[in-house]
Amino acid sequence: MRFIIVRSLLCMEDCPEWISAEGRITSDTPAQLRKVLKKIGDRKLPVVFQSEGGEVDAAYAMGRMIRKAGLETAVGGTRLKDCPEDDARCAAAIAKDGSSVGVTYSDGAYCFSACPLAFAGGVSRVSSQWAFIGVHQITTVYNRMRISYRIEYKIVNGKKTEISRKEVGRKAVGQSSSTKLGKKATAALTTYLKEMDVSGDLIALMMSTAPDRITIIPPADALRMGLNTEMLAYNEWPGMPLCGPGAATDAACHGHSAVEAAGAPGQVAVADTSEKLPTTQPMDFLLMHHGNCQEECTQWISAEGAITPDTPARLEAILKTLGERKLPVVLQSNGGDMDAAFAMGRIIRAAGLETSVGRTRLPNCPTLNPRCKASIAKSGPTEGEVSAGGAYCLSTCALVLMSGTPRLVGYSDIGLVRPTTAESTKFFAYFDEMGVNAESFEAMMIATSVERKEIPRAQALELGIVNGIIPYGDEPGDRLCGPDAKESLRCPRKAEAEIVPAAGVSN
């Protein structure tokens, strides 16, 4: 493992800094970390981990150092400025003093094996739904040695008595390993997890996974066990410090309060508060286009944010401006009001629209505000890009997704709610209405008691939540061309309706 002190390149002043910790944990890693902590002095820089694991005792030592220093931890990769894709922490980008400038990312980042033990040392421990925390059995390795001695004897009362023994050589003669935790190892692990405020349930999860496999811990379980203290929202990144009391809404920190995040009272309540879903602003709709609409361009309706009781009315308003044009609805949401999601789904099904999961980015917007108002067109569609990678449609958002004809998913995350007893009747009636296999979903959810469950793409297809996969190289909403686009391979035929002079309905 190598440590680099990195400053964010996404700001001009008062830029967040973090300690990027990437690589395998070895016996000398704690000593390297100690040097870095001595170097930063009293500064409270988050430690951002990406590691396949390594030595358990070293991970314990690192976790205790991090906790004693009062530092936060996160799971994430770091990409340094001007480094190539295949060498994200290239030596050329690191100054002689070991510092650099760069950005962090969650998508595909990982903390496996012994790494979660070091990660547990953080006073605040965060990751996003696009990063992976995984565990397996602890393997103890035993080395067998043949030791040679030079022994001197003397005869005392006719008996041979040893008077000195000196080691003269050692030779390895074999090695063995075991995944069974002895009493001493079990006590050490139990004590450490208790010290870090992590549930002992993690031990059972570790011991149930063979050493050549990794069990990925779902975000809800990581939160329940205390391994994570919070999930990062879609516009937060690893290395951000935890927001202090009264932090400004535009401050570069994670964990903004619900009122600050929404910008107004009335944040949507989530059915299971124990899962601590990231807060977002109420859903808004933008009519988008990508490319030159006098040549080729695609158009879609971008729907992002929390589903609130008035979201269906805003959806109806933008569809009314489109007349008979059937543009795909591209969703990104943590969910929200269930009845509102039912209403949205029925509106989309009645209009015969396509749905998919994707995140929309407008040009010249900062990373932390990808739909900045300055880039929204005052009339007509807004130019932007859409991608499936890292996008999400969770909780009640999936109820809206399943209404599309067709309904598609790429490399995005889908999660679905488990209804309460009082909600079950209308919940499964909606499933039947949308042609989704309610019985299979109910059986799948029976093993979990949390509000949200991640659903793999294959399972979403099997259940009927989606009925198509976006091909590699394509993006959500990337198949319908604008009405003025020239006929081409990408736009095989022109639409007849006109583009209306409206950017959409926004909160």
Query: Can you tell me the overall shape?
Result: elongated
Query: How many distinct helices?
Result: 13
Q: Distance N terminus to C terminus?
A: 46 Å
Please give the domain count.
3
Q: Let me know the average pLDDT.
A: 82
CATH class assignment of the largest domain: Alpha Beta
Q: What structural class results from the helix and strand content?
A: alpha/beta
**CATH architecture field of the largest domain:** Alpha-Beta Complex
InterPro entries: ClpP/crotonase-like_dom_sf
Walkthrough of the structure:
The protein is an alpha/beta fold. Helices cover 24% and strands 25% of the residues. It has an eight-stranded mixed sheet with strand order 5-6-1-2-3-4-8-13. Residues 258-279, 446-452 and 488-507 have low confidence and may be disordered. It folds into three domains: 2-137 and 182-231, Alpha-Beta Complex (2-enoyl-CoA Hydratase, Chain A, domain 1), CATH 3.90.226.10; 140-178, no CATH class; 273-469, Alpha-Beta Complex (2-enoyl-CoA Hydratase, Chain A, domain 1), CATH 3.90.226.10. The chain has helices at 29-40, 56-69, 115-119, 183-195, 201-207, 219-225, 258-262, 311-322, 338-351, 397-401, 424-434, 438-445, 457-463, and strands at 2-8, 17-22, 47-50, 73-75, 77-80, 99-105, 110-112, 125-127, 132-135, 140-156, 159-178, 215-216, 230-231, 284-290, 298-304, 329-332, 355-357, 359-361, 382-383, 385-387, 392-393, 407-409, 413-417, 452-455, 468-469. The longest helix has 14 residues, at 56-69. Strand 2 (17-22), helix 1 and strand 3 form a beta-alpha-beta unit. InterPro entries: ClpP/crotonase-like_dom_sf.
